[in-house]
Amino acid sequence: MPDLLSPDSAVSIATPTPALLSPHLDDLGVRLHEGGATLRVWSQHADGVELVVFDDTDHDWIVASELLRPVGGGVWEVVTTLLRPGVRYALRVNGPHAVGNTFNPRTLLLDPYGRGIVGAGANDWRSVVVEDSFDWGGVHKPAIPMDRTVLYEGHLKGLTKRHPAMPPALHGTYAGLAHPAMIEYLVDLGITSVELLPIHAFASEPRLHQLGLSNYWGYNSLSFFSPHAAYATEANRREGPSAVLRELKGMVKLLHAAGIEVILDVVYNHTAEEGVGGPRTSLRGIDNRSYYRQLDDGTYVDETGCGNAVDTSTDAAARMVLDSLRYWANDVQIDGFRFDLAATLGRDAQHSFTPEHPLLQTILRDPHLAGVKMIAEPWDVGMGGWQTGNFENGWHEWNDRYRDRVRNFWLSDIDYARRASTAPVGVGGFATRLAGSSNTFSLERGPLASVNFVTAHDGFTLRDLVSYDVKHNLANGEHNRDGADTNRSFNHGAEGETDDPTILETRRKAMRNLMGTLLLSAGVPMLTAGDEVARTQRGNNNAYCHDSALTWLAWDAKPWQIDLHAHTRRLIALRAENPALRPCRCAQLGERSPSASVMQWYDEHGRTMSGQRWTDASHRTLQYVAESTPETEAPNRILLIVHGSERPIDVTLPAFSDATRLVSLWSSEDETPSVTEHEYAPGDVIPVGPTSMRLFRVE
Q1: Strands of 369-497, DSSP E
Q2: Residue 6: its pLDDT value, please?
Q3: Which of 107, 120, 109, 113 is nearest to 55 (CA)?
Q4: Could you confirm whether 577 is annotated as catalytic?
Q5: 117 forms bridges with which residues in the sheet?
Q6: Mean pLDDT within 92-98
Q7: Rounded-to-integer distance, Cα 409 and Cα 385, Å
Q8: Rounded to an integer, what distance in angstroms lies between the CA atom of residue 176 and that of residue 234?
Q9: Are 196 and 242 within one domain?
């Protein structure tokens, strides 16, 4: 008998195996083997499950069927010769009439674990058995350290739909993203990781079809295991799901060969089945009571705002999410995931969020997911849904607090100051965000827990942030009611397009300030694709339903847009060259922590910042010195000047006792990034223009 007080026993007692890892839930879906395949489906409440196989060309012609047998733990199984690569199939599930159940033995349902999907009509789909072998040719994941990661959030189709340097057949496709012209662009810009909006198979809502629109973004999952076929080239779409998967893997392989990671935005919080009365395509017909959050009377608990919420408090639903992650991370070699509305995944059986949720815990500790980047959108729309900073160590989080403060400082505060002759707040809150958001993320998690962003797919583009005071979403068909009303934007004197040179100049500098803040802040920066060339959506801050030139990247940049691209490229390079800008840990007073940055703060007079000046709304200037304590790189020190007022100012550089010179590296005042490195001495007085930033290397 083992010693119950031994260290090993203590560990096993403290960390029991989560129920979602039960062997009963292993190998769900289709597993091919010699002579046929085994199909396993989970349904706790079903009375019977049937496999239905279709003709190779006619999606409605049933050619054979077999019953699955219960094998325990809610799992139904059949070993069959009917399933082979390319075969189209569906499930029919019968069960008792009861509150929360929606069984209908006539409904044809997708296999939740199916690797391929083909359409058979409106909201009518068939699963397809996929042959998934692939030669990776010795190419491995780049494994970019988190402190060196620069995320580039983009839409798979939108990135290349209008690219002039690739064949039209590749526009908007997996293969298009891997085209040499696109890879060269990404490498030259300096980004390390492409974060793609959903590429899981998805469907457009019937409401959008009625309006002549479509779900462009893809946050409406049909399957957690199948790639979206519409993003493949026409030739591979015709060949079928196996060819679609090969094209996707080929994209990942070529990006990896170029040193670029692939991060997927994944939507596990809800499905395309919408609310009660919505399409019945898979989970609702297989076991509605178990897969979706409900009250005792069968009413859906909708914490997502999309009609339903996947109930990850049940082991089978949680395991489905975990198995999907394992599949994409290993079979498809995906480097990381951004979890849409991640708070929903961490809700328990009482629908309350807990960071100790078994699924969230298992994702971090699963050996099959070791080294995979996990990024949470740390909120949903349910009660207690805003959880920024509350995920466990190991998770990285979209930092909305950072977004809001940075927008306020450079935009809405400036707007307020024009009308009231003073800004509403000083530099304190902005400085905290610049230095890694230590008021949001624990010391243990450090600055890399924060994924910093100023814009994302959801909201104004960078250009629209500085060009519009209000949203302009009439084209969405919802009478401008959709999209955020609080944008913290500032049009600088004219709504939308203008030919006023003063306004345009001010807008350009505002964009440089926002981009500079993002790329010079401690944490993990995320750019939105197209912001580096000032893409516009003409004031639409919720363009989810527009698959058009409104949302596709344009490649015909004007000179001022090329200048902004050059600034972005320069800033990314400076971030890579200066470890003081990318600390892994928080510095602690009186200690020298490895891979942290020791921070010092000065006012415009070169004096240590006083407590009163942090909170003085009229004081909008700071000097930020960060000194690295690297473990693998040479020591490094930078000085960043931030001036958040429209009045110019003279700034006295700090008089460092151990420095001889300060070398200018970047200024937001320059329309075109300067290639000349000017030198200054500690204590020099330099002029700083209105609302601007200056970066120096301290030597």
Answers
A1: 373-376, 396-398, 450-452
A2: 33
A3: 120
A4: no
A5: 127
A6: 97
A7: 26
A8: 12
A9: yes
CB proximity list for 180: less than 8 A, separation 6 or greater = none
Pairing state between β 662-667 and 679-680: antiparallel
22-26 average pLDDT score: 97
Q: How many domains does the chain have?
A: 3
Domain final residue, candidates 517, 549, 579: 579
CA distance 238 to 497: 43
Give the C-alpha separation, 129 to 32, whole Å. Answer: 9
Residues 100 and 183 placed together within one structural domain of the fold: yes
Based on the fold, state whether residues 545 and 424 are members of the same structural domain. yes
What is the reported pLDDT for 15? 58
Query: How does residue 287 score in pLDDT terms, banded at 50, 70 and 90?
Result: very high
Q: Which of 111, 261, 340, 603 is catalytic?
A: 340
Q: Is 676 exposed, middle or buried (0-12, 13-18, 19+ CB in 10 A)?
A: exposed
Q: Which one from 111, 247, 335, 377 is the annotated catalytic residue?
A: 377
Mean pLDDT on 75-84: 98
Q: Is it the case that residue 1 has pLDDT exceeding 60?
A: no
State the average pLDDT over residues 35-46.
97
616 catalytic residue (yes or no): no
Reduce the DSSP state of residue 649 to 3 states and report it.
Answer: strand
Q: What is the pLDDT of residue 121?
A: 79
> Strands 75-80 and 62-72, how do they pair?
antiparallel
| Kind plus residue range of the DSSP H or E element containing 506 | helix 501-520
Which of 532, 598, 551 has its CA nearest to residue 214? Answer: 551
pLDDT tens readout for residues 138-185: 999 999 999 999 999 999 999 999 999 999 999 999 999 999 999 999
> Per the domain annotation, does 36 fall within a domain?
yes
pLDDT at 434 exceeding the cut of 60 = yes
CATH number at residue 178: 3.20.20.80
Query: How distant, in Å, are the alpha carbons of 27, 35, 42, 66 from that of 81?
Result: 18, 6, 21, 10
Identify whether residues 370 and 428 lie together within a single domain: no
In this structure, the strands spanning 151-154 and 193-196 are: parallel
Q: How confident is the model at residue 590 (pLDDT cuts 50, 70, 90)?
A: low
The angle subtended at Cα 502 by Cα 498 and Cα 505, nearest 5°, is 90
At 153, the amino acid letter reads: E
558 backbone dihedrals φ, ψ, rounded to 5°: -80, 165
Inform me whether the pLDDT recorded for 13 exceeds 70. Answer: no
Q: Are residues 392 and 417 in the same domain?
A: no
Query: Can you tell me the mean pLDDT for 551-568?
Result: 97
269 is written with which tokens?
Answer: 């919080």
Reading the block at residue 36, the tokens are: 């046929």
Type of residue at 69: R
Could you list the residue range(s) of the whole structural domain that residue 599 is in? 588-698
588 closest CA partner among 696, 448, 442? 442
- For residues 194-209, average pLDDT: 96
